Amino acid sequence: MSADIDLQSANRVVEAAVKKAAEINTKMDICVVDAGANLKAFARMDGAWLGSIDISIKKAKTARFFDMDTGAIGGLSQPGGPLYNIEHSNGGLITFPGGVPLKNKDGVIIGAIGVSGSSVEDDHAVASAGADAL
What we know:
Layout: H1 7-23, E1 29-34, E2 39-44, H2 51-66, H3 70-76, E3 99-103, E4 109-116, H4 120-132
Antiparallel strand pairs: 1-2, 1-4, 3-4
């Protein structure tokens, strides 16, 4: 049996991310996908950008498709890098910070979180806070 995030855990991740976003005074779109990169939980904070809905979903999927932070993929996808132009694959990926794989207590990846709505530094901080809730 493969490991997958359950709804209660996905909601806990979203709640922790919303709390962090409020602490740093920003409005975020927050997406959690399951182990198959399917939408599991989502929150759009009041006033968060509409355009960030799609970005948060793509960040979560990107993190799950490649099992690494989207910022790390971004470093590999620069001109001359080994993953240059990867963002054009899989129906469109996001290769800047804000997507983080989610792991269970045994270190097995069970999904991912994607966050968008502020600077990439804030997006990553909020995504990390969500991931840390597991």
